[in-house]
Amino acid sequence: MNDMAAERRGITAKIKARGGRGDRSPLGTWFWDIDRVLLVLTLFLIAIGLIAVAAASPASAVRYSGEHLKFTPLYYFWRQVVWVGLSLPVLFGVSMLPVNVAKRMALVGACVCIFLLMLVPAIGVQVNGAKRWIGFGFAQFQPSEFLKPFFIVTTAWLLSLRAQDENLPVTTITFGLTGLVACLMMLQPDFGQTIVFATVWMVLVAIAGTPVRTIVGLLSLAPAGLIAAYLFYSTARNRIDAFLFPGIEGEGASDHFQTNAAHATLTAGGWTGTGPGGGVAKFGLPEAHTDYIYSVIGEEFGLIACGVIACVFLAIVVRVFVKLLDEEDPFKLLAAAGLATQFGAQALISMAVNTGLAPSKGMTLPFISYGGSSMIALSIGMGLLLAFTRRNPFLMRSPYVARWSPSA
């Protein structure tokens, strides 16, 4: 008992010596429990995104204005500043939520977003041949972007129920949910996002402890699904044909033009880039501020900057999975792993398209591409990820702290 009392006094002295560690207010608790490295990396990506959108904005303003004087050259940049201003409070607010509250919010959000996805074919707004948005004018939003984090948390919750009852058919239930979402996404059409949803589901099922035989069976369905998509889904067929057969004419020709233009823009600046505002190739690039912003970064800031950005995305994913190595809560483990997988998969696909390693998919680069729905939805997802990885490393050092705190 004397040893325990001495250790308690030692912990109290350390907390007082560290100043803010003794602050048990909600804000103080959040500050010490949050993964500050993960938060800093996220804010770094957002800052890079503002610089990149400023670089891409003149090209997009000229291309989509119809009249050169209709938009200011930095039109998309100033709009992105507004979206960032709206998104940061969302990110910080969601990251402060208790785990149970965050889970309930995600379950409700998933139901609402799936309902809205069902309405998209009927009342959605068509842009560039795809009907993915609901609303009008400035108030348009993309339900599928918001569904991603909510779907992941909902799937993680369902799979975590296996820890309570191994006989629950959670794999079958989540398979049906994923199939429903995939069908709704392909109706838009949005083949790229369908791949992201399916990939995240596969990763979660594997982490949840699904038998190896079942995993192998599911993986064997992937080639069959790809062949079926090629045969019966024109969007997938056109993009695959354009990617595999560059000389093809028809609907897929525009996709091949985009990937060629993206690759040419990406490499136009060499290793160090032309400098901010010095890019020329970007003016021939469609969607320079959204899908192909990584190429604009390559032209104006160089391939070295592109490599740094890729390393930041990798660092975020690796840090999350390393932190989860000792996570004992099945739900938090699955939810955080799924959110990190979605984040990394989206970044990987976007960069692969820009470098010509994958067919065009209309995938934005997380926190860097322009877009209100994308920015706010990603902030919700990262806020959930920060909430599920919150833990106080100092207070967890002692086996006695679980039963005692200085305020007790």
Give the DSSP E fraction (strand runs of 2 or more residues).
Answer: under 5%
Number of strands: 2
* Strand order of the biggest β-sheet: 1-2
Structural class: mainly alpha
The tally of helices reads 14
Distance between the termini: 17 Å
* Overall 3D form: globular
Mean pLDDT: 80
- Rg for CA atoms: 23 Å
Q: Give the fraction of residues assigned to helices.
A: 55-70%
Helix and strand element order: HHHHHEEHHHHHHHHH
Biggest sheet character: 2 strands, antiparallel
- Which residue ranges are poorly predicted, with pLDDT under 50 across at least 5 consecutive positions? 395-408
List the helices and strands and how they pair.
Layout: H1 2-17, H2 26-33, H3 36-65, H4 75-95, H5 99-123, E1 125-127, E2 130-133, H6 143-160, H7 170-186, H8 191-207, H9 212-232, H10 234-244, H11 252-268, H12 293-323, H13 330-354, H14 372-388
Antiparallel strand pairs: 1-2
Helix pairs in contact: 3-4, 3-12, 4-14, 5-6, 6-7, 6-8, 6-13, 6-14, 7-8, 8-13, 9-10, 10-11, 11-12, 12-13, 13-14
Question: Would you give an account of this structure?
Answer:
The protein is an all-alpha fold. Helix content is 67%, strand content 2%. The chain has 14 helices and two strands; from the N terminus they run H-H-H-H-H-E-E-H-H-H-H-H-H-H-H-H. It has a two-stranded antiparallel ribbon with strand order 1-2. A hairpin with a 2-residue loop joins strand 1 and strand 2. Helix 3 (36-65) runs antiparallel to helix 4 (75-95) and helix 6 packs parallel to helix 14 (372-388). It starts with a helix and ends in a 20-residue tail after the last helix. Residues 395-408 have low confidence and may be disordered.
